[in-house]
Amino acid sequence: MSLKAFHIVFVSATVLLALGVGVWGLNHYFQEGGNLNLALGAGSLVTAVLLGVYGRFFLKKLKNISYL
What we know:
84% of the residues lie in helices and 0% in strands. It is mainly alpha-helical. It has one domain. Helix 1 (3-32) packs antiparallel against helix 2. The radius of gyration is 15 Å and the shape is elongated.
């Protein structure tokens, strides 16, 4: 597996993890309240969006390099 392919898999996994933590944090905020749960959920969702933007930038930058 090339470094490019590994990078894509790793960024995708972190986006999914950040989305999961964001949904989990916001779910706890709406059920129990608490500013920490809100900050965790919102921060994780913002992180997921920023990682998605980074992933697109990475793919555009290395579009001429193969995945092998």
